[in-house]
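Technical note accompanying the year-one report. For the benefit of new consortium partners, we illustrate the data format agreed upon in the data management plan: each record pairs a sequence with a structure-token string. No post-processing was applied to the example shown here.
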Amino acid sequence: MIHRPQRSLPVTVLVNSGADDNFIDANFFKSNSLPLHKLTSPKEVLAIDSKLLEMVTHRTDPLKLILSSNHHEFVELSVISSPLTPIVLGISWLKEHNPHIDWSTTSIREWSSHCHACCLQSAVPARSPDPAQQSEVIDLSNVPREYHDLREGLREHTPPTPSL
């Protein structure tokens, strides 16, 4: 989803390890009046056989892209003709975010440490934990590893142990 101050735009995204750049379809771009800038020099987009597909002359200004409901980032996308897939995220995006993809369900199972530090911050509590709770140990042995980064939120929502 592309998030704009006025509204959010649902969009299909293709992750393509063979693409050298990140792209947005020209018609999707125009129909949603997204901000852009002209490149100082055009960039070639080549097919797998090295034939010229297009010359990229424009890129979007940074757009807020939300994936999996919780992965927020700003991306610049090169404008090309891609009518079947409005957004293509290429190898540079894959290298930066390094998602662990479950290909049988076409879902992202886990995000990289970069994403946990930068893109998934909405899952981190907004306020600092109480120093008195810092020493409290939470047993995460029955919690899947991909949720361990949420342990601070568990402190806030764990009911106190009743005292007798």
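Partners are asked to follow this layout when depositing records. The CA atoms of residues 104 and 140 lie 28 Å apart.
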